[in-house]
Design a protein that fits this description.
The complex is a heterodimer.
Chain A: E1 3-8, H1 11-15, H2 18-31, E2 36-41, E3 53-56, E4 61-64, H3 72-77, E5 93-96, H4 101-104, H5 122-127, H6 132-137, H7 142-152, H8 164-173, E6 180-185, H9 194-201, H10 203-217, E7 221-226, H11 231-246, E8 262-267, H12 277-284, E9 308-312, H13 313-325, H14 327-331, E10 334-335, E11 338-339, E12 341-348, E13 354-359, H15 364-371, E14 381-386, E15 393-395, H16 405-410, E16 419-424, H17 429-443, H18 449-452, H19 454-467, H20 471-488, H21 492-496, H22 498-507
Parallel strand pairs in A: 1-2, 6-7, 6-9, 7-8, 12-16
Antiparallel strand pairs in A: 1-3, 3-4, 4-5, 10-11, 12-13, 14-15, 14-16
Helix pairs in contact in A: 7-8, 7-10, 9-10, 9-11, 10-11, 10-13, 17-19, 17-22, 19-20, 20-22
Chain B: E1 22-27, E2 30-35, H1 40-46, E3 72-73, E4 92-94, H2 98-113, H3 129-137, E5 163-165, H4 175-184, E6 189-192, E7 199-202, H5 218-222, E8 228-230, H6 231-236, E9 241-246, E10 255-261, E11 264-270, H7 283-287, E12 302-303, E13 312-313, H8 316-334, E14 339-343, H9 349-363, E15 368-370, H10 377-386, E16 404-408, H11 412-415, H12 417-428, E17 432-436, E18 445-446, E19 449-450, E20 453-455, H13 462-475, H14 481-487, H15 490-501, H16 507-514, H17 518-530, E21 534-538, H18 540-543, H19 548-561, E22 571-574, H20 581-586, E23 593-594, E24 598-599, H21 603-613, H22 625-634, E25 639-643, H23 647-650, H24 654-662, E26 666-671, E27 683-686, E28 695-698, E29 703-707, H25 719-730, H26 739-749, H27 758-764, E30 766-768, E31 812-817, E32 842-845, H28 847-852, E33 860-865, E34 869-876, E35 884-888, H29 896-899, E36 916-922, H30 928-940
Parallel strand pairs in B: 1-4, 14-15, 14-25, 16-17, 16-21, 17-20, 21-22, 25-26, 26-27, 31-35, 32-34
Antiparallel strand pairs in B: 1-2, 3-4, 5-8, 6-7, 9-10, 10-11, 12-13, 12-27, 18-19, 23-24, 28-29, 29-30, 31-36, 32-35, 33-34, 33-36
Classes of the chains: A alpha/beta, B alpha/beta.
Chain lengths: 513, 946
């Protein structure tokens, strides 16, 4: 048997030299006369280990990371190409990846295959449990599929946490000859990358989830709207559509069901706001990406005016597992009304950044300390922002909060898309509050007044506060502005921008003094 | 907002078809019942509750951006926008509360933080919704200061002649952008940039004048601030009252409010209540009204002995006496029939009625004709023969219900722009379009509108085309057998069926004649036949042919064959050219018909008129306009009274017309300007513009609308008063103290008008004839259960090629038409800033024809026909097909009608303007006609010094 090496093709790995490593290893193996097959996979999400080189053995896949081209001579010297026993005696050795404590401690559901397989290897996908969900789905009618999703307790992973089954039921009940399934892959929140990792690592799972949605609601056409900042993901999806056709996952007769489903991949044009579902639909229709008012909900009047399921990548990706293993297998994970798993994306000032798929209920402290290993700088963690740029800043005193939509909401925060950005004690929360307004000012679509003008004024007011100009008056004004934006804005961008601002004011008042 | 302005309900009324279920809601404790789907804002407004708003206005769909109209709804989270929230049964709404007040003030504070504080000197002062809202929400301070980011230094765009665009005052409500899209359908405006940098952008950051903007004024109308504002308002200030009247340009007949300061027009704004235009307008009606007070207006009567003499200003008494004396002398010397007159399609119904009455009763003959002779006379003839009525069958609103528009020989986006916008809206909503036109008109392919088929036929082959469509539908079994059997005359149908099935009417035969592939013709026919509601809209490209009447009949045949009559969304719809051409025809302006299209030979009708008018009337039809010219040249016709028509420019073969006019002993011209015809006149009677008199116009949909006096006549008398003076001087007494009395007489004498009165018009706004005891509210759709003539009559429509043929010497076909910014002979529009868009007639020519003649874009070329030659500049255009050239006829100095011929419709003598064989060659000089013209008109218009 020839030597099989696995190197991620994920953008995070490529960013730290995965392509160069793969090429150099290929050449080195040829020099050594070793028969070596390098398989490019998705990422395991253990980003601090990238580039994570995995070597297949009878015991499993041994990992080495982070590996760069500079490590090649020492790896060869340790016997990589001449049959030495793993783990090799090498400083990058991490043992069997599946047994890695921070991998093993996860509950890999949606990401079960991510990092294991070549994302475009249809056979590998099936061998690792792909298509089990759709095969279960084609045996059910739409009503039964929707029931499974409803019973699983799955909630929209894009951030709003709306029950997916209810959304699907609404679309299913809507009368129309044409309905659509739209996947929101416009992952624009700072500190989030789960959608990208899944798309680059296991796109067929996403497609499988969308096709199941199509069967459930009676839609025959789907679109994935992916941001232009994800060129690798876009290319992967384009190829994955072809693979899905070969697998009969797409086409006129999905898995022999007699029902058809076609999928188109559309590239965004660089606007954060197009991650908001109605803007996304406008953009998909070829218009300027601005917010549509709701109601009517997209489920009633969505793409091209037709009933439309629009869900996040991770919502769809959770579906095949739910259908394959039953709603109960999913709903028994999690706490309260937050069922299943969340792809926690840990970034910022953290020692071990990456993606960890964890059941709801785990505390922030566990994530930060056990998974993240504390701050990268070694200084105390002072604040975290959960849920993207519109999420609240939480102080250390709230680190025992469990991951739970309702618990976070109780503290004027949000779980959002699962991104956690970590700050140590050098952070100035007044500047972070300003950043929130600035982010809104840059990304506002410009439609509604509170967001269009308010965000710019918010920056100015915070500048005055930071400069100490009429601080008290300006703090009152800032609070009034936050009210106007929160209660008056047309969409969540303007409506949620006050969240980080007010959380900074509440928990870190000293930074505004 | 000015007190005379109509209330703004914030969001549009629902379409009738969507408003069947009623729901009851409680707003601030008051119950109201409205159609389901109505917005909370509109429901509140029906109670008189004005929810604060800026981005909402009832001419465009709700948008939800300003966030001023937030309300509280029991049981709902947050503060929904009342403009975007539909009412639901039992809903309880609060439109004001301390919290809502706080939110609205917060929003206004943001708005004003980026708005110049120059209210007192601002053009919109007193008419600014932003100002009103600041007051309504109680904004007392702007705590953000004015040092922050702003748009105060934005550059003002003054490029459009009629309005300015000041981005510094823009609140980015997108009302202009939405109006351009939804109301006008031009898509010239967009929002550029995002967030705080969002700005309204014409085209791609162009000036308005360089963008695709067509200056319809919808954006200006929609703007709540001074960002888009009329230059006239900037100059004059706000109006203090309004006079609702009817536009004097095309046959759409838009209702306008003349906004006045005393007797000065500040601006013309389209009336929302107008049933023809529903609050929309075009560049002509909205802005090009300055001609009414142009210094060129002639305000004193003038006479002269010979047409080479200079004009002499005289009193009204002298002028009238001169005419009476001359006309009486002519009749004494040359007989009763030696004089005649022309009624004006630009004047009111009452005035046309009076002129024909004077001619029939005062002149004692039937030598009356009208300019419909040269435009839609075939419509009257053809529709009367087949259906029984000389008019279109629908109202404009009908287009909202059509599934397929078959547009033939009409270019609505230029010639009937307000209706074109309605049509485009329906097409954007899914109706299909087939265009039959030699030229690639805008509707063939424009923003969000694309014709399924463009059958670009050779000029002059309409009849072959319409026959082929009918042939295909009949032979392929796609016709509506049930409807034909129920509604049409069986014998006529059988006869016609044999005719149309003949191979010579097949698509394949038509293909060789029209140049359009047979498969395209068949495909179009199938599409038309398949449409549940198929409608035909047409213009002068149908009528102004030697077979104009045949073609009108052919279209009626096609519509009968497919069962497209008697309901909304179908029918035959002539797009009539002039504001009152329908009315002039209705009023008895033709030499053979009394009002209501009753033949002069009909003794009973004649007896009625004789009884009322107290004189014997001739039962012999009089002279048509071309007959008058021929008779003048023959020496038997000597005196002519021409009210408001410039025959020397508008009628074909100008040199022939001029020779005829020169041979008259007494030509009396009544007009607001010294027009081309007046150069050959002996008496000039100054006319009154539409702003200076009372009366009615009847538009293309048979809609009678009031014209109301906004200012006194500049020359002292309205046209009807002048006709009355003239008649009295001739010895036939008329005594009307107001045009309403004339209308009362019309109603009494005309069965289709018997229910019309000024009181009824004031009550209904407007009414479509027939309006009588059977239809007291008027008749939007005709022929509902059966055709007016009883059974619909299929007419044989053999295709006969015109005698005007291309040869080696004249290898090209010329067709003529209008352009958006100019109107017909241009007497009005040339005296406005509309010349910015079109200041000369150009010859549009295909690149192939230009290149083979060595012609570049902009070169001066000689355009020569068998009738004459003129020089004008060439415009190379992709709209043309090879072998066909096109020009407009707006400028007298071009003399497009020098080139057109005297061939005319076999039935009505409507000239064949649309087909003239011509040659085009480069030149560097004016034609001999043009040089003579300059000399002659400079003499003919000279007024003697005091």
């Amino acid at each position: 048997m020839s030597l099989r090496l696995y190197i991620p093709k994920d953008a995070a790995a490529r960013a730290v030299g995965a392509d160069e490593l793969a090429a150099a290893l290929q050449m080195a193996s040829e020099d050594c006369g070793s028969e070596c097959q390098i398989i490019r996979t998705g990422s395991r999400g253990l980003l601090w280990l990238e580039t994570l080189l995995e070597v297949e053995t009878i015991k499993g896949r041994f990992g080495y990371g982070p590996v760069t081209t500079e490590d090649i001579p020492s790896l060869i010297a340790a016997g990589l190409f001449n049959g030495a026993k793993h783990p090799l005696d090498h400083r990058t050795a991490v043992g069997l990846v599946a047994e890695h404590p921070l991998f093993k401690a996860q509950t890999r559901q949606s990401f079960a295959r991510c990092g294991l397989i070549d994302p475009l290897d249809g056979d590998g996908f099936v061998a690792q449990g792909g298509l089990r969900g759709i095969k279960a789905a084609v045996k059910m009618d739409g009503e039964q599929i929707v029931k499974q999703v409803t019973d699983s307790g799955l909630r929209g992973r894009g951030g709003a946490g709306f029950p997916t089954g209810i959304k699907w039921q609404t679309v299913r009940n809507a009368e129309s000859s044409q309905k659509y399934i739209v996947c929101n892959a416009d992952e624009g929140d700072s500190g989030t990358f789960a959608d990208r990792i899944l798309i680059e690592g296991d796109p067929l799972t996403l497609i499988e989830g969308m096709v199941i949605a199509g069967l459930a609601v009676g839609a025959s056409k789907g679109y994935i709207y992916i941001r232009s900042e994800y060129p690798d993901g876009y290319a992967t999806l384009l190829s994955a559509v072809l693979v899905a056709h070969r697998l009969k996952l797409l086409g006129a007769n999905v898995m022999g069901s007699g029902k058809g489903f076609e999928l188109e991949i559309r590239l965004g044009a660089g606007a954060y706001i197009c991650g908001e579902e109605t803007s996304l639909l406008e953009s998909l229709e070829g218009r300027r990406g601005i917010i549509r008012y709701k109601p009517p909900l997209p489920a009633i009047k969505g793409l091209f005016g037709q009933p439309t399921v629009i869900n996040n990548v991770l919502s769809f990706a959770a579906v095949p597992g739910i259908l394959a293993d039953g709603a109960e297998s999913y709903s028994r994970l999690g706490v309260g009304r937050s069922k299943g798993t969340l792809a926690v994306q840990l970034g910022g000032n953290i020692k071990r950044g990456g993606l960890f798929e964890l059941p709801f209920g785990v505390t922030l402290r566990t994530i930060l300390n056990d998974f993240g290993g504390g701050s990268a700088s070694g200084r105390p963690i002072r604040a975290v922002q959960v849920g993207g740029p519109l999420g609240a800043y939480f102080p250390e005193s709230l680190f025992d909060l469990p991951l739970d939509y309702e618990e976070f909401a109780k503290h004027q925060g949000m779980v959002g898309h699962g991104g956690i950005v970590v700050f140590d004690d050098s952070v100035d929360l007044a500047r972070q509050a300003r950043f929130a307004m600035e982010f809104c000012a840059i990304e506002s679509c410009g439609k509604c007044t509170p967001c269009r003008i308010g965000s710019t004024r918010g920056v100015e007011v915070l500048d005055r506060i930071i400069a100490g100009t009429d601080r008290d008056k300006n703090l009152v004004l800032l609070n009034d502005l936050c009210t106007t934006m929160q209660d008056g804005s047309l969409c969540a961008l303007g409506g949620l921008t006050p969240l980080p601002v007010r959380s900074a004011l509440k928990h870190f008042a000293e930074d505004f003094a | 907002m000015a007190s005379y302005r109509s209330p703004d309900f914030g969001t549009p009324a629902l379409a009738e078809s969507n408003s069947t279920i009623m729901v009851s809601v409680e707003i601030d404790g008051q119950k109201v019942t409205v159609p389901a789907g109505t917005s909370v804002m509109r429901a509140a407004m029906t109670l008189g509750t004005k929810v604060p708003k800026l981005c909402a206005t009832d001419s465009v769909e709700a948008f939800g951006s300003c966030r001023l109209c937030l309300v509280e709804i029991e049981g709902r989270r947050g503060y929904p926008a009342s403009c975007t929230t539909p009412v639901e049964n039992g809903m309880k709404v609060k439109t004001s509360s301390p919290k809502l007040g706080e939110l609205r003030r917060g929003v206004m504070e943001l708005y004003i933080s980026d708005h110049p504080l120059d209210c007192l000197t601002c053009g919109a002062n007193g008419d600014c919704e932003l100002q009103d809202m600041a007051g309504a929400v109680g904004l007392r301070e702007v705590r953000y200061g004015y040092e922050g980011a702003n748009h105060f230094d934005s550059v003002k765009d003054t490029s459009n002649p009629y309005f300015t665009f000041d981005p510094a005052k823009c609140i980015v409500c997108s009302r202009c952008v939405r109006a351009c899209e939804e109301v006008q359908g031009t898509f010239a405006l967009t929002i550029d940039g995002r967030g705080f940098a969002s700005v309204v952008s014409p085209g791609q950051n162009q000036d308005f004048i360089d963008s695709e903007c067509v200056s319809c004024g919808a954006c200006v109308q929609a703007c709540p601030t001074a960002t888009l504002i009329e230059k006239s308002v900037l100059e004059l200030g706000q109006a203090e009252h309004k006079v609702t009247t009817t536009c004097a340009y095309c046959g759409v007949g838009c209702s306008f409010d003349a906004e006045m300061q005393g007797s000065t027009v500040v601006r013309m704004t389209p009336s929302k209540e107008g049933k023809a235009n529903h609050g929309h307008s075009c560049v002509k009606g909205r802005f090009a009204w300055g001609y009414a007070t142009h210094p060129d207006r002639i305000t004193k009567p003038m006479v002269r002995q010979r047409i080479t003499d200079p004009w002499r200003e005289v009193s009204w008494e002298e002028a009238i006496k001169t005419v009476a004396t001359k006309f009486k002398n002519i009749q004494a010397e040359h007989g009763t029939d030696a004089i005649g007159g022309i009624t004006s399609s630009r004047c009111t119904n009452e005035e046309s009625y009076l002129v024909q009455k004077m001619i029939r009763a005062g002149f004692g003959n039937n030598n009356v004709d009208t300019c419909a002779r040269v435009c839609h006379s075939p419509t009257g003839y053809g529709l009367r023969a087949t259906l029984g009525t000389s008019a279109g069958t629908q109202d404009f609103d009908s287009v909202d219900h059509t599934d397929l528009v078959l547009l033939i020989g009409a270019n609505p986006t230029d010639a009937h722009p307000v209706f074109a916008s309605r049509m485009k809206k329906r097409l954007r909503a899914g109706a299909k379009l087939i265009v039959i036109d030699p030229r690639k008109i805008d509707l063939v392919d424009s923003a969000h509108v694309k014709a399924e088929h463009h059958l670009a036929l050779r000029p002059g082959t309409n009849v072959a085309m319409i026959n082929a469509l009918a042939h295909t539908i009949l032979t392929e079994g796609l016709w509506d057998e049930k409807s034909v059997h129920e509604r049409c005359d069986a014998a006529d149908f059988a006869y016609w069926s044999d005719f149309i099935r003949d191979e010579r009417n097949s698509a394949e035969a038509a293909a060789t004649v029209t140049g359009v592939p047979a498969e395209s013709i068949r495909a179009a026919a199938r599409l038309f036949a398949a449409a549940p509601n198929g409608s035909i809209y047409y213009g002068l490209g149908v009528t102004e042919h030697s077979q104009g009447t045949t073609m009108v009949m052919g279209m009626a045949n096609l519509a009968m064959l497919t069962g497209n009559f008697g309901r909304k969304g179908v029918g035959i719809n002539p797009l009539r050219g002039q504001n009152n051409v329908q009315g002039a025809c209705d009023m008895g302006s033709f030499p053979h018909e009394f009002s209501g299209y009753r033949h002069v030979s009909d003794a009973a009708t004649r007896f009625d008129f004789e009884s009322l008018w107290g004189v014997p009337l001739s039962g012999e039809p009089g002279l048509r306009i071309p007959n008058m010219f021929d008779a003048a040249l023959a020496g038997t016709f000597k005196g002519m009274y021409v009210q408001g028509e410039d025959i020397a420019q508008s009628d074909p073969n100008t040199q022939h017309v001029v020779a005829a006019l020169k041979s008259l002993d007494c030509l009396v011209v009544q007009d607001i300007f010294m027009n081309e015809t007046a150069a050959y006149a002996h008496v000039f009677l100054p006319g009154a513009s539409f702003l200076e008199k009372d009366g009615t116009f009847t538009n293309a949909e048979r809609r009678i609308s009031r014209v109301r006096r906004a200012m006194p006549p500049l020359a002292g008398y309205a046209d009807w008063e002048v006709t009355m003076m003239l008649s009295n001087a001739l010895g036939y007494q008329m005594n009307y103290s107001h045009p309403s009395e004339i209308m009362d007489e019309i109603a009494r004498m005309t069965p289709t008008f018997s229910g019309v009165s000024y009181a009824r018009l004031d009550e209904l706004g407007s009414v479509q004839w027939p309006c009588n005891d059977a239809a007291p509210m008027g008749t939007p759709t005709m022929h509902i259960d059966h055709f007016v003539r009883g059974k619909g009559r299929f007419m044989i429509t053999d295709y006969v090629p015109t005698d005007e043929k291309t040869t080696a010497k004249f290898p090209l076909l010329l067709t003529t038409g209008r352009i958006l910014s100019q109107y017909n002979v241009g007497a009005q529009t040339r005296r406005t800033d509309n010349v910015v868009w079109h200041d000369e007639d150009r010859l549009e020519i295909h690149a192939f024809d230009a290149e083979s003649r060595g012609i570049n874009d902009g070169d001066t070329v000689a355009l020569q026909s068998r009738a004459g030659e003129v020089a004008l500049r060439a415009k190379i255009s992709e709209r043309m097909q090879p072998g066909v050239v096109y020009t407009t006829f707006h400028f007298a100095e071009t003399g497009a009608n020098v080139v057109t011929t005297e061939y005319s419709d076999w039935a009505t003598n409507c000239p064949e303007y649309k087909v003239t064989a011509v040659q085009v060659r480069p030149t560097n000089q004016k034609s001999s006609f043009q040089l003579d013209y300059e000399l002659e008109t400079s003499i003919g218009r000279k007024v003697a010094a005091e």
